[in-house]
Amino acid sequence: MRLTRYFLPVLKENPAEAQIVSHRYMLRAGMIKQQAAGIYSWLPLGLKVLRRIEQIVHEEQQKAGHIPLLMPTLQPADLWRESGRYDDYGQEMLRIRDRQDREMLYGPTNEEMITDIFRSHVTSYKELPLTLYHIQWKFRDEMRPRFGVMRGREFLMKDGYNFDVDKESAIHAYNRHMVSYLRTYERMGLTAIPMRAASGPIGGDNTHEFLVLASTGESEVFYDEAVTTLRLGGIDIDYHDREQVAGIVQKFTSFYARTDETHDPKAFEDVLEVHRKVGRGIEVGQIFYFGTKYSESMGATVTTADGRKVPVEMGSHGIGVSRLLGAIIEASHDDKGIIWPEGVTPFHAAIVNLKQGDSEADAACEAIYKGLQARGLDPLYDDRDARAGEKFATTDLIGLPWRITVGPRGLKNGVVELTSRRTGESEEMSPEAAIDRVAQIY
Ligand code: ATP
Ligand code: MG
Ligand code: MG
Ligand code: MG
């Protein structure tokens, strides 16, 4: 993309309404625009990051054998009457009437609808295990929408639902979700710690939340510092291998890590004192095993191998896709702006032309631009007729991890400069070498 042909409405001033850094930078970098409290338009740069995050979520879910579908945002109230949640859900649910005076709602989550789909089509254990998921907009009329996309009212969530014939198989689905989530967050450059959580209105007692440590997080967290050093890294995962998957879950849940809702001060004392940490975290996902809570009330049954008819075992598993943008920025920024991890960056590299209009500099920038594209990359070429300082400020603010700076002086010696946004370190090299280096990184 050439910046002069893009739509990147950056703000020079700090917006007064933004209380935390991620919200401030998302507004300043022209990623989002608020349309009403907790409701945002996604401007082109914001949408690009959102799509990259969605893509990673899709890939990791499908590696785990989970199948995408798409349910609507609007749901009939009657489905929720079957589970009893229409009355229980309270003010967070946005209730709507259509022209026929039918009661509808904007879905805050989809347990009822997915259970309805399941019971309409599946009757036998032979069709199990089955996990269906979608990435769809949700609406929750939050009491205090704030912090930009972190606590929106309309927000994008991945929610997945497993259907299994027995508890063992449902626990394996739970474990699969935990492992696929760990991998998902790691690919986004995040450390998200699974913490034992309380179940809330969805019900059930086997649940973990995934928390990204950040001083601006809304949850209070208590943990053994050792848990923060765990990584999946590049290990091969066979999601059919129950033992391997359970082993990873065991490893990641072996240290004390809880939110304030489940915190047990007595048990916390068993943690080595120097490792005992209290802090704050951002909830970027949650997994639940809840057994037959919905299948019983909604009549979703399957016949077993020995001919019995049983309510199907279920769980539900969510990732806060739009909240993740805020969480990533909270975890990765400096005083100049965002620092995108390579896994989610909106553009792979910036090309900054120090002297727009200089025929050699222009030609070199064009060659690098086309060279990066030929390697399958998506560069942003700052081709504005602007001062170097202004161009640097923009690429720093929008957080592109790599910058190739091109100017007449360097070109006399056959070099451009490759700069890391994270370390600030620069290295001179030929334009071809810069293209190679960036291509190797991705
Ligand atoms: P919270 O405790 O922050 O209100 P939740 O526990 O109510 O979240 P879940 O029902 O577990 O949310 O939904 C799954 C994920 O969706 C959460 O882990 C979170 O990342 C995201 N999420 C929930 N509410 C919002 C919101 N209002 N804005 C953005 N993301 C949200
Ligand atoms: Mg909530
Ligand atoms: Mg919560
Ligand atoms: Mg939750």
Automatic annotation (TrEMBL):
Quickly give the catalysed reaction: tRNA(Pro) + L-proline + ATP = L-prolyl-tRNA(Pro) + AMP + diphosphate
InterPro entries, sorted: aa-tRNA-synt_IIb, aa-tRNA-synth_II, aa-tRNA-synth_II/BPL/LPL, Anticodon-bd, Anticodon-bd_dom_sf, Pro-tRNA-ligase_IIa, Pro-tRNA_synthetase, Prolyl-tRNA_ligase_IIa_type2
Source domain of life is: Bacteria
Keywords from UniProt, A to Z, are: Aminoacyl-tRNA synthetase, ATP-binding, Cytoplasm, Ligase, Nucleotide-binding, Protein biosynthesis
Identify the residues that the record assigns to the Aminoacyl-transfer RNA synthetases class-II family profile domain, covering every copy.
38-341
Recall the GO molecular function terms of this protein's record.
ATP binding; proline-tRNA ligase activity
Which Gene3D superfamilies would you find in this protein's record? Anticodon-binding domain (3.40.50.800), Bira Bifunctional Protein, Domain 2 (3.30.930.10)
Primary location class: cytoplasm
* Compartment(s): Cytoplasm
Is Transport included in the keywords of this UniProt record? no
Top enzyme class of this protein? ligase
- Gene Ontology cellular component terms for the protein in this record: cytosol
What processes does the entry annotate via GO biological process terms?
prolyl-tRNA aminoacylation
The record's Pfam families line, in alphabetical order, gives: HGTP_anticodon, tRNA-synt_2b
What EC number(s) does the entry state? 6.1.1.15
Q: How does it assemble?
A: Homodimer.
Tell me which HAMAP family the record gives: Pro_tRNA_synth_type2
Q: Which family does it belong to?
A: Belongs to the class-II aminoacyl-tRNA synthetase family. ProS type 2 subfamily.
Q: What does this protein do?
A: Catalyzes the attachment of proline to tRNA(Pro) in a two-step reaction: proline is first activated by ATP to form Pro-AMP and then transferred to the acceptor end of tRNA(Pro).
PANTHER family assigned: MITOCHONDRIAL RIBOSOME PROTEIN L39/PROLYL-TRNA LIGASE FAMILY MEMBER, PROLINE--TRNA LIGASE
Record protein name field: Proline--tRNA ligase
Lineage, highest ranks first: Bacteria, Pseudomonadati, Pseudomonadota, Alphaproteobacteria, Rhodobacterales
Gene that this polypeptide is encoded by = proS
